[in-house]
């Protein structure tokens, strides 16, 4: 009976994997910045980015603070125009956007001089035309954008399958996603894949997948891998939380395989990462108790009671301690 209660607690954490954000990848790179006039924010003006190589136009408006964001700006040469509320041109210049790194963000801050648009240079003559990209450069940009669009499609497919609880389909999409981006720092892809495998009773596969995800998450949490500022799951705090959840889920998978020692090892790592987690100490206490590792269980159970003396599992943990004292 007690063992069932512990397994249920672990399974609760296993089910808590969040949905993948559909906007986690974009075609091209986000472009953000601020429009000012003599240093003062310029709200409600239109920022127009025109790709001089393809003719594609991206438009947006500034907010009250003069800030703007444009998603999915393909790499290339651009004419940047700022238009007033009546459509009058306040600013124009040519620039290149994008570095070829799909995780980068273009920063484009614009300060408009008093009196509106300034001449293109101090002599009032137009600047030389921005050089056209070569066929090879354009081909690489297209290939990069096609790859990111493909990743987007797989993310959407995995998200839809998880919502429909079609775990085999979710597993297939997530495997393709990871194979297409083997160097990804997206530990949450591995957590979602581990969940899909566990839901399909592939507990050995799930345990291995969680292990890979934990390595990535801990690398971000420790600072070894720099976080992606556009991915909310890439912050050290989020990665640390993800590592704890995956270690707990890995422990649950090992319990399903009746591998108590491996489950205890995973749960010990979880409480090492987050020693102040009462539920972590409770899970470890219960699994150690069921495995009759009473000396270790007493330590974990007492740590739980120190953290939550009146917690939801306090009476159950006290019962464990009472039974162990009689051994």
Task: Quickly describe the structure.
With 327 residues, the chain is of the alpha+beta class. It is built from ten helices and nine strands. The longest helix is centred in the middle third of the chain and has 29 residues, at 135-163.
- Model regions low in confidence, pLDDT < 50 over at least 5 residues: 1-9, 11-27, 99-103, 118-128
Task: Output the number of helix runs.
Answer: 10
Q: What kind of sheet is the major sheet?
A: 5 strands, mixed
Count of strand segments: 9
Q: What is the gyration radius calculated from CA atoms?
A: 27 Å
Q: Judging from the principal axes of the Cα atoms, what is the shape?
A: elongated
> Would you list the SSEs in sequence order as H and E?
HEEEEEEEEEHHHHHHHHH
Overall number of structural domains: 2
CATH architecture label of the largest domain: Alpha Horseshoe
Arithmetic mean of pLDDT: 81
Percent range of helical residues = 40-55%
Distance between the termini: 18 Å
Name given to the CATH homologous superfamily of the largest domain: Tetratricopeptide repeat domain
Please give the CATH class of the largest domain.
Mainly Alpha
Instruction: Look up the CATH topology of the largest domain.
Output: Serine Threonine Protein Phosphatase 5, Tetratricopeptide repeat
* Secondary-structure content class: alpha+beta
Q: Percent of residues in beta strands?
A: 15-25%
